Amino acid sequence: MSTTGPHSVGPRTVGPSNRGVRIVGTGSALPSKVVTNQDLEKIMDTSDEWIVQRTGIRTRYRIDREKGESTAQLAAAALKGALTQARLTPDDLDLIICATMTPEMACPASACMVAERLKAGRAGAFDLNAACSGFVFSMNVAHDLIRMGGYRTIGVVGSDCLSTLMDYSTAGRGTAIIFGDAAGAAVLQAADDPSFGVVAQSMHCAGEGWKEIYVPECPQDFPPGVACDPGKYGRVQMNGAGVFKFAVGTFPELIEQTLTQAGLKPDDIDMFVCHQSNARILGAARERFGVPEHKLYVNIDRLGNTVAASVPLCLDELVRAGRITLGSGQRIMMLAFGGGLTWGASLWRV
């Protein structure tokens, strides 16, 4: 196999750097099919009122395999949009990180398939799986790779198609009503001004909580005390009450810890870009910190919980609406929590 090409990447010298990191473009992609609460009423024992009251969700999107829609297809479309906004080409990318828990297959990484779709020269590519926290974790990783001088331009994508792991029957209604398919992306690039980039960041895991959200594939995958059920293979198993309790406790603590780390107050943050898991959780966090409604973005009503795509979807919508202006120096706090159990933050000066 040839290792040369239009964008062949050679050895890099990595060391301390005072370079900054800027988000220079964002993008997103949605499948073609909209699934309303009324659609779900037709296939399971649920109702629009029940779903809205518990989650705030009214619609979500679902991929259509016959139209070629998939994790990699959505990811490539989102990253292409981010590159276009940044006025860059795929050849400008040194690395692609794809945050996903629904890869195309075990091998190769979906990021490699994204690189092929975009014809991204010889850029490095790998997947990162931290469930709903994946994009935030990936932004922290990409930022530090650039800050240290090893890379200049990195494409970060969050892409998930949880519809492929859902049980669309009454037995699976607790999870099927929540999740939607989508992708969002950001392009990060080295900057001469070191004040741009991450101000504070964190990545955490409570490994003992893995059993709150898992996807079994064999008898050994079921938690102790839970009987093996082959009918649940390849389907998300979630303890909704346990996850809700975890999120309610973790979310405000994460905000407080991140602000403390940065030496800032809630009023100093221009926008909170949060994982969209549940409208009630978002509302409770906003009220606790006295955050004005316009500073904590919510789109879960239209898109559902899109896992790793959730945060970058919000980011892209905010950028395109002019509420976040890249290069302005605004402070934005990206927050997420999810399976693992994982949670993390990425506070940026953009």
- Supply the helix-strand structural class: alpha/beta
**Can you tell me the number of structural domains?**
2
Mean pLDDT: 92
Report the uncertain regions.
Answer: 1-15
Using the alpha-carbon principal axes, give the shape.
globular
Q: How would you characterize this protein structure?
A:
The structure is a single chain. The protein has ten helices and 13 strands. The protein is an alpha/beta fold. The protein folds into two domains: 20-191, Thiolase/Chalcone synthase (Peroxisomal Thiolase, Chain A, domain 1, 3-Layer(aba) Sandwich), CATH 3.40.47; 197-349, Thiolase/Chalcone synthase (Peroxisomal Thiolase, Chain A, domain 1, 3-Layer(aba) Sandwich), CATH 3.40.47. The strands form four sheets. The chain has a five-stranded mixed sheet, sandwiched between helices. It has a four-stranded mixed sheet with strand order 8-13-12-11, sandwiched between helices. Strands 2-3 form a two-stranded antiparallel sheet. The model is unreliable at 1-15 (pLDDT under 50).
